[in-house]
């Protein structure tokens, strides 16, 4: 059972609008156990549309289309489907009356150009549109079932739920349940993570396990299919357990969880408090922590010590230390974290220093991307030195994650 | 000249991630007068990829692909291009050395997995990746030129600009010119902004002007087409001038500029310095300012005074003021900003307090979404009280924008 989703419109191929319908439909199909192999977006061009629809009718079992059902000249879907199916367009009187009634409701007479919205390829079914004037079309062409819906998201959502989804059920093309499980890690690169999981991520493994990198988070996704939820859970659980065992403390959460969720959760659980002193990350560690509801119970506050004089005046870092080690150094990171912890009276404090660029610092041995982070706690500290490649934004966001991760790793061992 | 854009990855076809690369690339091609006829997204499946690439090589003149160039087993683009072109994969020593050097820079040895990233279809050119380990591929297959780039947006952006775009120029496949001009505003809602521009944003206006809202920024986009850049500029300029005249100080920038860019630019121009004290925004105002290269010249630093005791101990806000007015009040916002300005010795300071939710505060008269911001300067202050509807994240990001906007409006009048 292979699905294809087609979006129609030059406003999308030109880049003017972002297509979000395809993602929404893919998720809906996945919930029913139907996996999507292709998204295709095509401009408002008759020949290109015919080619795309013909191609889809040959390579997919189910094709959901959005767009091209309006009353204007660049709305081609009706005609395209008729041509690819080799049938004529015929008027549906019931649809025509309904469209006229919508205009009457607004105190207007239906313009002539809306008449074409009541035309359907012979042999197709009407998908009723309770939200607007464009009915959808349901028909089989070659090997595939086609469901054509309007491009306006609010109209499409309702038509999918009320008209298309029940038809998928009747066709018996639901494959039961399809579940994606996402496991999030931080601390190693994509290839280092995969090296620990080569037997699991290899092509053909059942269930399928994919690996993706997103801003220094490396995630594993387990895709499993079965006739019911319990069966799918039984497929996923042993694989998830194996992944967790192999990756150990690299794993910090699942699904949409971020490092800050893990840190705030651990702080609450272990009844510890934290404060933050930031240079290179400029407030981002603090912001990440404050994104988590309930952070105020464990997060006292923080200082962005951006200019050196703030590090000296507000935190009390000795000028001599900055002079001798350089402000971007492990020594200064540790001193900042220690002083911050004492100043704010918290159990823990994390610090960041570094060069985010684009301009380089004074020390050629410490190029843009050089960062240091420290976690201070009573009786000691842990630290991390790293060199990032990337933009200013990437260096800042990833360094903030390093700082959060130091706190997470420490808290996990308590 | 017909272009096709291919995105590769099951995380996109499954609906887990939203594809934004295709839109970005379509816009870039449009700027060069190249129109995109198709977007195709395909899962990490060898046969489906081969079919998609073969199809594109026959129906398009230019094909830009993103994704599938990583070091893992589900990265198939190298193999797919070689198979469709009917050539073998050969190792590029220079690329291999470069990838190794990237790992060395971080003090690590290249994992064996990454070796495959130095493999290229015979006869192709290497697209150098200065942002990461995945080089791109440039080659002609059947009638189409292919440019394969990484899926990570930051890597793709740079590779497109530095490697692909110059090659498009050399091929002579640019047509006329298509320019989109974006004007960004903050301070009023979408309909209030449009009310001032109804004659310009109406359908059929030449040039076309669209209006979009994104996280409290309202942007106007002017779309113009012509045979050369000068002609297009002459179409855009009078419309832009009219928009700026109507909207006045709501306009803070163009294209990708954000409020923090305007604020840092104004601070540099007027030779003023700023500091920040944040409660509800938790470090986000500070982070926004530090996103701007060169911020260290004008930004001293900031304090996230998240818990009340930090407001009292670190800033010296009188406990009685908090008790009498409530911590979420205009009075506390003003007091925080004043004390922050004196503490950090800056010309300006901004503050934020409020309730971001999801849990409500103690005062039923101040529901979730109630926020106050103040700007302190020598001799006075400006303030803004607002009530946002939305999620915790929306309340935080939008309130940070209110604080930046207070600074911008003040600096503009200096």
Automatic annotation (TrEMBL), chains A, B:
InterPro entries: CinA (IPR050101), CinA-like_C (IPR036653), CinA_C (IPR008136), CinA_KH (IPR041424), Competence-induced_CinA (IPR008135), MoaB/Mog-like_dom_sf (IPR036425), MoaB/Mog_dom (IPR001453). It comes from the Bacteria. SUPFAM superfamilies: CinA-like, Molybdenum cofactor biosynthesis proteins. Residues 4-171 form the MoaB/Mog domain. Signal peptide: none annotated. Belongs to the CinA family. This is CinA-like protein.
